Amino acid sequence: MNIALFGYGKMGRMIEQIAQDRGHTIVAKVDVDTKEIPYHKMDVAIDFSTPESAFDNITGCFEHKVPVICGTTGWLSNYDQAVSICNKNQSGFIYASNFSLGVNIFFELNSYLAKMMSGLEQYNVSMEEIHHTQKLDAPSGTAITLAEGIIAQSDYKGWKLDQEENNIIPITSKREGMVPGTHTISYGSSVDSIEIKHTAHNREGFALGAVIASEWIQGKTGVFSMKDVLNLY
Ligand SMILES: NC(=O)C1=CN([C@@H]2O[C@H](COP(=O)(O)OP(=O)(O)OC[C@H]3O[C@@H](n4cnc5c(N)ncnc54)[C@H](OP(=O)(O)O)[C@@H]3O)[C@@H](O)[C@H]2O)C=CC1
Ligand SMILES: O=C(O)C1=N[C@H](C(=O)O)C[C@H](O)C1
């Protein structure tokens, strides 16, 4: 498979390594200075760039019918527009706030726990995410997906960063050293607490998931999620 990398930073480099190990070829590394983007060479584009550049990168690919796997976070106010450009051009698209198998299992666990806890008024939920100091967005995309998972199963109406309000999930974002990504969800009452936590030890899981998604989307048109790729129940 011929892969183009949009963004060749920490994730782009890790994806290159894993993709080559799985027999794929990197045909382009696109960054802000790239003058001519060789869409005709690409079977798939993988975007791990920046919140500011992701939308233009992705939609440029759709206009050339190149399917896109996007892991960039912090640009989702334009997600619906990206979906309609994908559909209009009969291209393929998977966005995931987190491509790792472990986090996608954690998403399911989070929904299940939220369903069990809904209606138990003695418990309040809160979330903490910790990432490296170079991260541009807060809260993390993964924390937003986790909050959306809780909201779908409960009476919580939304989430807010560093703010306690009725029916709102408070999210705390910490930036420390080189932390690849740690997410904790806590339900607290006056007598006890329940916590679930996912800790990434490195970026390999994210990168492998993105390459597996790229393999999966070959020959497909439409908009999919990692749930489709991993076939989790
Ligand atoms: N979904 C998931 O599983 C994961 C998502 N992420 C997300 O992926 C994104 C990238 O993360 P990470 O690799 O750690 O970040 P990095 O900052 O290490 O890499 C981003 C790269 O994008 C480049 N870039 C800047 N502008 C453009 C442009 N217009 N087109 C293409 N590339 C551009 C940057 O170049 P320069 O440095 O020259 O500006 C940089 O090399 C983030 O949004 C992060 O949250 C990260 C890990 C997992
Ligand atoms: O920026 C990162 O590093 C990460 N970003 C994603 C997010 O915002 O959730 C995924 C992972 O946690 C690492």
Automatic annotation (TrEMBL):
Keyword Transcription part of the UniProt annotation: no
Residue positions binding NAD(+): D31, G71, T72, T73, A96, S97, N98, F99
Catalysed transformations (reactions): (S)-2,3,4,5-tetrahydrodipicolinate + NADP(+) + H2O = (2S,4S)-4-hydroxy-2,3,4,5-tetrahydrodipicolinate + NADPH + H(+); (S)-2,3,4,5-tetrahydrodipicolinate + NAD(+) + H2O = (2S,4S)-4-hydroxy-2,3,4,5-tetrahydrodipicolinate + NADH + H(+)
Organism domain of life: Bacteria
Pathway field: Amino-acid biosynthesis; L-lysine biosynthesis via DAP pathway; (S)-tetrahydrodipicolinate from L-aspartate: step 4/4
HAMAP family: DapB
Protein name per the record: 4-hydroxy-tetrahydrodipicolinate reductase
Organism: Flagellimonas alvinocaridis
Annotated gene: dapB
